[in-house]
Amino acid sequence: MTNEDGRPSVVLVVAHPDHDSATWAIAREVEQGIQADGNTTATTHDLTKSGFDPIFGKQDLAVHRLRGEVPADVRREQELLDSADAIALLFPVHWWSMPALAKGWIDRVFARGWAYDTSSESGQSAVRALHFIAVAGLDEGTYDRRRYKEAMTTQMVHGVAGYCGIAESSIKFLYGTETDDPRVHEQLIDQAYRIGADLAQRAQSARDQEAA
To answer: What's the pTM value of the predicted model, to 2 decimals?
Structure first.
């Protein structure tokens, strides 16, 4: 993956329809954190606004079977991601997972032959780094007590990124977005900014490794 201007690049993919939501407030702060070093570029990709179709159809199945061409809308998504040193998918937690739009985006875009290749011994992925940011309405204690964090980590970090052979992956949780406590809101904004700054560092590290 290369960025034409030589600067490390992060693509932040957001799956939420309401720009006045906590999810989008967090997304904007993550974007600020990414750009804070004055060097890393951030591209925020609004899945709802893009009109991306999350339904895995016959064309997608043909691609999976290595018998068809990649649909044009999927190819556009892949080309966007090809320019990134790191990808972050930010979403509100729905039923202890990601919403249908985000899951369908994974289903279609992270296709066989691009995100992973079961026919190759190397199993090399076109994606170098994939990071998940989960916006959770409830508190951290609930997630720990019911093992939701563990389940989602297994599903996304191991089940998606690990299966694809992606070299670097993580999941971050931002808890308590449904509270009215302004102190929690301030903490969430601070956490989001720091997540963005960390993504910038990871993108720079990936760029340095590529140049070595």
So the answer is: 0.94
For the chain, helix, strand, coil in percent to 5 are 45, 15, 35
Mean pLDDT, all residues of the chain: 94
Q: Can you say how many angstroms the Cα of residue 71 is from the centroid of all Cα atoms in its chain?
A: 21
- The amino acid occupying position 135 is V
What is the structure's pLDDT at 6? 81
- H or E element that contains 23: helix 22-35
Strands 41-46 and 86-92: unpaired
Residue 62 in tokens: 């043909």
Q: Which of 202, 186, 193 is nearest to 30 (CA)?
A: 193
pLDDT of residue 1: 44
Q: Are 128 and 166 in contact (CB under 8 A)?
A: yes
pLDDT digits (tens, 9 = 90+) for 21-51: 999 999 999 999 999 999 999 999 999 999 9
Contact status, residue 126 vs residue 115, Cβ threshold 8 Å: yes
In the DSSP assignment, the letter for residue 69 is: P
